[in-house]
Amino acid sequence: MTKMLIYASVISLVGSCAHKRHTEKIQDIKDSIVFEDVNQVLKYSKSITSEELSNHLYTFSSDEFQGRKTGEVGHNKASKFIKDYYINQQIPSPLGVEKYYQHIPKSFFSNDIKSSQNIISFIEGSTYPDEVIIISAHSDHEGYSDTEVYNGADDNASGTVAILEIAQAFKLAKEQGHGPKRSIVFIHFTGEELNLTGSRYYVKHPIFPLTKTIANLNIDMIGRVDNAHLDNPNYIYLIGSDRLSTKLHYISEKANREFTNLELDYKLNSENDVNSYYSRSDHYNFASKGVPVIFYFNGEHDDYHKPTDTPEKINFPLLEKRTKLIFSTAWYLVNSDEPIIADKLQ
Fold first, then answer.
1. What residues form DSSP beta bridges with 144?
2. Which strands sit side by side in the sheet containing 101-105, from one edge to the other?
3. Signal sequence: where (predicted)?
4. 177 pLDDT exceeds 80?
């Protein structure tokens, strides 16, 4: 055998061994993901209902809130609606009783905006209270014109009301003795439509250290079906789940198999995605700081950023199912004794 053939054989053997080790590592990760409290996840996910999602969304995307443009009167009313919900549910704010607002000064905005606010609530963990996961959605939209209101039912009333339902499900679990081991932070970001301003501000001024932030699950448009899935609406796009943490990706897949059986579509997760969705919603500011993320998204549709994005077009049973996927994924993240890590940064 020539030296060249020997060298090629050695390289092939090394590559084969490395592939085997990687495959075994992935299988070990998959095997380690076990929902030991399936019945509890099912029990509390039942509190997430199409009816309640619909009631919240019809209010939040109504003309009363004038399209929720950042810094405007309508968005401030919408912020108060969210704050009042948490007060009524007795879900506290980490900023102090009934405060809830993380105020963002005028100097942080590039537009002519006096001020705006993120809305933050949380449920404290019992075992690892200093470790948190953040579930987020933006509350702002496009405002109104002389003749029409941009109601933003899908963008992003759908994500907003999903968080409200997830928060009350975790609150109910805690009341009944099944509270999370880690703390859960619910953030409604302002200014997403203005270069992700609210989340940019938060990562510069975090309420909880980013080094203790285990993951960000970000929800932006999950109430509709895009043109690519008209024949198969039982789907959700996941973006970023495998970018920073191997385990987060497989936790998400296991949660889906156990509880929702949606088609998890990853084609918008490609690093070559021409639309660059990975960098276009609030999760990106967490990912840029090394926090593992999942971005939940239904894709764009013909009513995107138009006055025709209205509540009667929302698929509420599908919104419920997608919300339950996020809830079950969050349940594992806050209750597993072993936190996920951003192993792909190492």
1. 149
2. 101-105, 115-123, 182-189, 128-138, 213-219, 293-297, 235-239, 263-265
3. none
4. yes
